[in-house]
């Protein structure tokens, strides 16, 4: 196997000196001082071996610390005939230096018809970037350089390296980049030989929950489209699968075939991850020995031992058809296509009757639980915990399998749950299910909504259980919104097939009666679990500990992005959201004295409309009003116990999520609910109505700051 005849891509760190002190890198610690000079570049790259190079990526260390950076760029442009693009990766700290050198490099590239771009490291928004880079005012410095480069008509790409430190800040990094029209890409921190960071491997490694969060983030269309390169988008897809399922890398890599890494000490490596330099007899005649047997063995060993487990974002050429799958039009219409393909199956499942005799005497040990699992958040984890407690108490069931369409997500949330002598297991939606392995089927918590594919899958599983004369129970559900005749029919079929139905609110009970169902009114199952763990001692997570460590009173804020399924078709959701944010911002400003407002995200991931996105919008609103408002965003996927701990320290909650309200009411916190249904009185209103607290809930369409301020004052005086 030959390494290559002529390389096309060169990774070229021109200095090992760096003035960052990044938490995922030791370059700044080890004290290497090797650098390229323009003369050494000329001696190496004037060889015919480099005549087909089309791209050179200049990096470091910090390349601007090499005083010959401009001369090096000019030399490269002069001696490499087929060069198409040149990039520089920088920490962006030296604005004055960039002001001087960027126009010179850009003009030199323009004269040769070479595309020039600058990659700037942005590992967090605001103080988070400084926390990762450990350089004062790091965020202000790099963003100033980015704006300078853009003003010079130089393409800017932000590059964010994800570690446990900044993992929950990446949504804000993305939003900052997009709102300022910068390209942004993301990579996972990992061991890279040139960074000398082997001893940091454990502390920069993401845990399972963080891996799952990042996988979801990388698959979000907003993240995918923030990267301009189709190859990068495909790499995200591959990386997401690896983070979820720990499978081998499938993404191609140019450094296996047509790329090289040349270090500042003039050593040549297959890539920046490789610790073994290639045996080159004479640096002035690289082609003479680049393909010797020793080097072939080095590459082969690298491919066998390292490449399949490599998280580095070095990539290569994919099969042509794969590029079509990450075009903008495909991303937005592919999910619709998947739904269209499912239509025949949905129709069949809705038409075929569910047969089976009603059951009354249950002996249950092992249960299969179905619902919207895979799309859950901390509130849904509490629902699941409550359902399990109920079934265990009623029937002494001890084994529970949870069916999920994103098993990595559901596994994260069942780790929140604490039981004695109860076994929990997550199984994938595509796994073959044998009803005979179970004693009962339970539809657990959450609402029956107009989601045809989900309802269809429920019906298919229910039919299989009823055909085997096994009991089907519905525990603690809500009903609606059901927006069309078709999904109303499917929901009715599910309700009629159940042997026992318990309903979580009075409004849901009235809906079930319309379907001819005699359900029993209980409450949301999350209340059961929250009461079960209410007095459990827990230590605050580090992300929470700093937030609650204050002498000020704490108010908890929770908002969620609006969703068309909870709205009238002609609703102007952006306008409603803008009005909502203005109202909340004005209210917080009014009560700002001696209060810390903490935004608690009930749902942080991208699949379920991340609360963090609207949190950042509110933060921007507040900063425009005043810099004196003490508003903190809890950047974390909070677990149940830490949510409870935060609420126990709170004086007031303003919550939009249904389960944000449930958590607050369960902990006896004065609570204002924001009902986000614009088509009818929604589930937040129904929850407060059951508690006879209708005077503490507002619909977002009718919201105004004066009414909210009045409501807060009235509530705090009770």
What's the quick description here?
The protein is α/β, with parallel strands linked by helices and 718 residues long.
In words, what does this structure look like?
This protein is of the alpha/beta class and 718 residues long. The chain folds into three domains: 318 residues, TIM Barrel, CATH 3.20.20.70; 188 residues, 3-Layer(aba) Sandwich (Rossmann fold); 176 residues, Glycogen Phosphorylase B (Rossmann fold, 3-Layer(aba) Sandwich), CATH 3.40.50. The chain is 42% helix and 15% strand. It has 26 helices and 22 strands. The strands form three sheets. It has an eight-stranded mixed beta sheet with strand order 6-5-4-3-2-1-7-8. β17, α21 and β18 form a beta-alpha-beta unit. α3 runs parallel beside α4 and α8 packs antiparallel against α15.
**Number of strand elements:** 22
What structural class should be given to the helix and strand makeup? alpha/beta
| Gap from first CA to last CA | 80 Å
Q: Which outline best applies?
A: globular
| Tally of structural domains | 3
Global Rg? 29 Å
* Poorly predicted runs of 5 or more residues: none
* Averaged pLDDT: 92
Major sheet description: 8 strands, mixed
CATH superfamily of the largest domain: Aldolase class I
List the helices and strands and how they pair.
Blueprint: E1 9-13, H1 27-30, H2 38-45, E2 55-59, H3 69-79, E3 85-90, H4 95-112, E4 115-121, H5 127-133, H6 138-151, E5 155-162, H7 170-179, E6 183-188, H8 208-219, H9 221-226, H10 230-245, E7 259-262, E8 268-269, H11 293-305, H12 320-324, H13 328-351, E9 366-370, H14 378-395, E10 399-404, H15 407-414, E11 423-428, E12 440-444, E13 447-448, H16 452-467, E14 472-479, H17 485-497, E15 500-503, H18 506-514, E16 520-521, H19 525-532, H20 542-548, E17 553-558, H21 573-590, E18 595-599, H22 611-625, E19 630-633, H23 640-648, E20 650-655, H24 658-666, E21 671-675, H25 683-690, E22 697-699, H26 705-717
Parallel strand pairs: 1-2, 1-7, 2-3, 3-4, 4-5, 5-6, 9-10, 9-12, 10-11, 12-14, 13-14, 14-15, 15-16, 17-18, 17-20, 18-19, 20-21, 21-22
Antiparallel strand pairs: 7-8
Helix pairs in contact: 2-3, 3-4, 4-6, 8-10, 8-15, 13-16, 14-19, 16-17, 19-24, 21-22, 21-26
